[in-house]
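Q: Predict the assembly, please.
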Amino acid sequence: MKNLIVCLLLCSPFVLTAGEGDNPKDAIRKVLDAQVQAWNKGDLLGFMEGYWKSPDLSFFSGNNKAAGWQATLERYQKKYQGEKKEMGQLAFKDLSIDLLGTDHALVKGRFQLQMKQEAPTGIFTLILKKVPAGWRIIHDHTSG
Amino acid sequence: MKNLIVCLLLCSPFVLTAGEGDNPKDAIRKVLDAQVQAWNKGDLLGFMEGYWKSPDLSFFSGNNKAAGWQATLERYQKKYQGEKKEMGQLAFKDLSIDLLGTDHALVKGRFQLQMKQEAPTGIFTLILKKVPAGWRIIHDHTSG
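A: Predicted assembly structure:
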């Protein structure tokens, strides 16, 4: 009996990594919630965990494109961690999550940032893909 | 023999509507090319053929959202066909088409408009879905 339990624990598909047992929409929402929590602790690298760590990640903002995870990180560092910059407090609003087949999703929403002096806001389109690490943003288009 | 040929013509999967026999990327490119051709003839309704004719179409531009095909058409009419407005000549550049599963695609690119006095440009993210009518844009995010 003990062996059976050990076997079940080791071999069963119910041995899941965090979030893997969620339905896709819940799993995606957790990724986005984790991004917001990381941002609001000033943890930019934690926020970047939501993005696909690949040179094929693409990030569109206004009239500019960043190609790859590293360039996306550097754009965030420059915009929010440079001299006299602040990250502020982030919130995502009006989120909608649509699954596109089994391995991709379209997420639409609005971001709001509460800074000391201003409160920038804008809208975004995210494409997420289910990769081995979990659901990750493979394309981000943000404008405001 | 004649009956066999008639049957083949009527029943065969090779009886295709226009573009249906293309591979998905070619079919998507034809939809976008047709949009550009329609725009450049001043045919806004022809251009709108590329969009999913549904209240669930979403169109994001800058900090604004339009919900549905009709609202998207009206936004284009107001912006490009109002008093003292012009449609100009449209070109799509730097197009990339990535299939997301079998029935969806992510298209990224840049638009360029040549007007009489100015030449606005911007970048876009399109999500297309294969619907019974063919590949159609179900979400457009444009910024510049």
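The interface with chain B takes residues 58, 60-65, 100-104, 106, 108, 121-125, 127, 129, 139, 141, 143-144 of chain A (CB under 8 Å). The longest strand of chain A covers residues 89-100.
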